[in-house]
């Protein structure tokens, strides 16, 4: 299924009730990634699984994971993983998950 939120940062800010600046600062402090970089990593992780487990085209997977501009996805995928989506699918992708994040106390509650 297509990621339902086109602007996830806006939605995250709305859900927390924080200002965008405060949200970005706390999110980055908690994860080590900016909110948009985190969302991109989640999408790339999903794309990696789809490339490994389905025969869907790269363009279709790009759309399924939330990228509506097909030309952007392969460049981002290669920047994040070091491989093109096609090379990943061919079995070149055996790197560990990009998302080994662990959370302690929520940085979004209280100051």
What can be said about this structure in brief?
The chain is mainly alpha-helical.
Explain the overall architecture.
The chain is an all-alpha fold. Helix content is 59%, strand content 0%. The chain has 6 helices and no strands. Helix 3 (35-53) crosses helix 6 (85-92). The relative contact order is 0.15. Mean pLDDT is 84; it is low at 99-105.
Ordered list of secondary-structure elements with their pairings:
Elements: H1 8-16, H2 20-31, H3 35-53, H4 58-64, H5 72-81, H6 85-92
Large-scale geometry: elongated
Radius of gyration: 15 Å
Count of separate DSSP helical elements: 6
The main sheet comes to:
none
Helical percentage: 55-70%
> What is the residue-mean pLDDT, rounded to a whole number?
84
């Amino acid at each position: 299924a297509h990621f339902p939120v086109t602007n996830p940062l806006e939605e995250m800010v709305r859900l927390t009730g924080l200002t965008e600046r405060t949200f970005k600062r706390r999110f980055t402090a908690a994860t080590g990634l900016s909110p948009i970089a985190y969302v991109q990593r989640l999408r790339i992780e999903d794309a990696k699984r789809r490339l490994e487990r389905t025969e869907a085209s790269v363009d279709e997977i790009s759309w399924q994971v939330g990228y509506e501009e097909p030309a952007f996805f392969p460049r981002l995928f290669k920047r994040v993983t070091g491989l093109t989506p096609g090379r990943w699918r061919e079995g070149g992708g055996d790197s560990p998950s990009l998302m080994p994040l662990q959370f302690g106390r929520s940085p979004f509650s209280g100051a």
